[in-house]
Design a protein that fits this description.
Blueprint (H helix, E strand, L loop, with lengths): L1 H28 L3 E9 L2 E9 L2 E9 L3 H5 L4 H17 L8 E8 L5 E4 L10
Parallel strand pairs: 3-4
Antiparallel strand pairs: 1-2, 2-3, 4-5
């Protein structure tokens, strides 16, 4: 039983990495440079951080059987943690809170298709 659970966990981990790779390629095709992968701050991990001439994009990748199921996996608590880590990232890089940024959610379905929800956190990380 434990071995089956371990195998499922490893499969999910590798599927998550593949989804992140796919999303990273999508952003690069659209002209973004990847600034960081799996960046860890006080609130937890940010899957991808990209940048272009307009600023930074903090990206949470969610994979599931459908886009709808993937979207349901992002909780308000998780958004708050991502915001905390984004603040740490800005401080770590010597950037101020007025840095132009947004929070995207990248949804990946079972076929590997990607759907990007720009500014998915409804205007940022305010209380």
């Amino acid at each position: 039983m434990q071995q089956a659970a371990r195998h499922r966990g490893q499969a999910a981990f590798h599927a998550g990495l593949a989804a992140e790779d796919s999303v990273a390629r999508d952003y690069e095709r659209r002209g973004y440079a990847l600034a960081a992968r799996r960046w860890r701050g006080a609130g937890g991990e940010i899957d991808l951080i990209a940048r272009d001439a307009d600023g930074l994009v903090f990206i949470e990748v969610k994979k599931s059987r459908s886009f709808e199921m993937a979207a349901e996996r992002l909780s308000p608590r998780q958004m708050k943690r991502i915001c905390l880590s984004a603040q740490d990232y800005l401080e770590d890089k010597g950037l101020g809170p007025l840095t132009n940024m947004r929070f995207d959610v990248a949804l990946v379905d079972a076929c590997g298709a990607v759907r990007i929800l720009e500014n998915a956190f409804d205007g940022g990380c305010g209380d």
